[in-house]
Amino acid sequence: MQSLVEHARTFTEHVAANAKDFERFADGQTPEALFVTCSDSRVVPSLITGARPGQLFELRTAGNIVPPYPGRDRPTGEAATIEYALCVLKVRDIIVCGHSHCGAVGAILRGDDLSAMPAVRHWLERSADGRTPPEDAGDLPGAVQAHALAQLNTLRGYPAVRERLAEGSLGLHAWYYEVHTGSVSIHRPERGTEFARL
């Protein structure tokens, strides 16, 4: 914790040295993409993409799960984030990035007993809703990739996503990140469910 505190203490010096870069943030944000990924501390979107502050709008959830659109009666933080990214920030792309060694997808794949963690169990059961990973996904990497594709399908159920897709003003992308090698693979729709390394 102390190293985090020390960095926060000296961060204003970094900002002062790069004042022009940071001053523009007072005018608002115009991120290029919404990056949906796992809460896992080993997954750092700005490191993976090289994004500078202001380039990515992020949504992080356990297992990079996108829950089904809740409707007006049951709003969720996830739905609000997606809607804001599309309707206000006008992001042009949404990336759902799964990762190797994912505990959430592994728990779904193995059928782990999560009774000691009822919130986690409920999140995985209700949000994944038995949709992912499919039984034929095979090993964990395959299951994580299938899981990322399933989240894209869930996104297509969001009214704002449907509207932007119909306009042709939104791209949906599934990525797979290996935490131990740093390699990134992306889904190639023309090849079915296949992911290919960048």
UniProtKB/TrEMBL annotation:
InterPro entries: Carbonic_anhydrase (IPR001765), Carbonic_anhydrase_CS (IPR015892), Carbonic_anhydrase_sf (IPR036874)
Keyword terms of this UniProt record: Lyase, Metal-binding, Zinc
Domain of life (superkingdom): Bacteria
UniProt entry tagged with the keyword Zinc: yes
Record has tRNA-binding as a keyword: no
Cofactor(s) essential for the protein: Zn(2+)
Pfam families: Pro_CA
Enzyme class, first EC level, given as a word: lyase
Catalysed reactions, semicolon-separated: hydrogencarbonate + H(+) = CO2 + H2O
Signal peptide positions (record): none
EC number(s) stated in the UniProt entry for this protein: 4.2.1.1
Gene3D superfamilies referenced in this protein's UniProt entry, alphabetically: Carbonic anhydrase (3.40.1050.10)
PANTHER family per record: CARBONIC ANHYDRASE (PTHR11002:SF76)
Protein purpose: Catalyzes the reversible hydration of carbon dioxide to form bicarbonate. Reversible hydration of carbon dioxide.
Membership in a protein family: Belongs to the beta-class carbonic anhydrase family.
Protein name as annotated: Carbonic anhydrase
The organism of origin for this protein: Streptomyces sindenensis
